[in-house]
Specification:
The chain has 234 residues and is mainly α. It has helices at 2-12, 17-41, 46-99, 108-129, 136-164, 166-169, 173-180, 188-233.
Length: 234
């Protein structure tokens, strides 16, 4: 009996940690009862153990699948804002670089406002990700992920747009000036793709780190505002 309990206990170790913590004791008791019942009626042999192992293997796979779905849902709940912001940003890139190229504003104040709005949205991403815990750590992760997803969507969209609509984007003044003032590439496509690759290497890490800071800043301001509200109501 002792050896059987030890063997079954080793099988249970393969369950997810939280599941094992909650149900290990009851599972051990259920197995002990079933083992004693089987022993009274039949001789415990290979068939019993094969059936037990197969049943537990099926349950282990099921519990890990449930855990995967739960974590995926929680991740989506935390970072959906980054996905939405990334999609909207990608659409904006297409509109300003392909559809409304002639009407796209080339104004320093407009660009400054756009960047400021982007920073605020990343901070909001950190606030959303930490809305339950109010933790600066969760806010930093939320801000970093939101910024990473958004920046990655924008950069990928630029690569697609620049290659699919090269005849349009190659007429942009900054690309014409940049291509004319370099001596490495002989075609506009190679020049633009190199610039996009360099942006991936430099922009993504900076955006991620900056997003973490903005997420913490947003959560910090939110926590201070909540404390002030409570104090003012006293």
């Amino acid at each position: 009996m002792k050896q059987a309990i030890t063997l079954y206990q080793s099988i249970i170790q393969f369950y997810p940690k939280e599941f094992k913590k909650r149900f290990q004791k009851s599972m051990m008791q259920t197995f002990a009862d079933r083992y004693n019942d089987e022993k009274l009626s039949y001789t415990i042999g290979m068939i019993f153990w094969i059936k037990t192992i197969l049943d537990e293997l099926k349950n282990i796979i099921h519990e890990y699948f449930i855990l995967f779905l739960t974590r995926r849902k929680n991740t989506m709940n935390k970072f959906w804002f980054g996905i939405v912001l990334g999609v909207i940003s990608s659409i904006a890139v297409v509109f300003t670089n392909v559809i409304f190229t002639n009407n796209a504003p080339d104004n320093g104040s407009i660009i400054t406002i756009a960047y400021f709005g982007y920073f605020i949205l990343i901070a909001i991403g950190g606030i959303i990700a930490s809305r339950k815990t109010k933790s600066l750590k969760d806010a930093a992760i939320g801000g970093a992920v939101t910024s990473f997803i958004t920046a990655a969507c924008i950069l990928v969209t630029f690569i697609v747009v620049d290659n699919m609509f090269l005849n349009i984007v190659s007429q942009q003044s900054d690309k014409i000036w940049g291509f004319a003032n370099q001596h490495t590439y002989h075609t506009m496509r190679d020049f633009i793709n190199d610039d996009n690759m360099r942006s991936f290497i430099t922009v993504l890490p900076i955006a991620t780190i900056g997003g973490a800071f903005l997420g913490m800043l947003g959560r910090g301001i939110g926590n201070i505002a909540a404390i002030s509200k409570v104090q003012s109501s006293l």
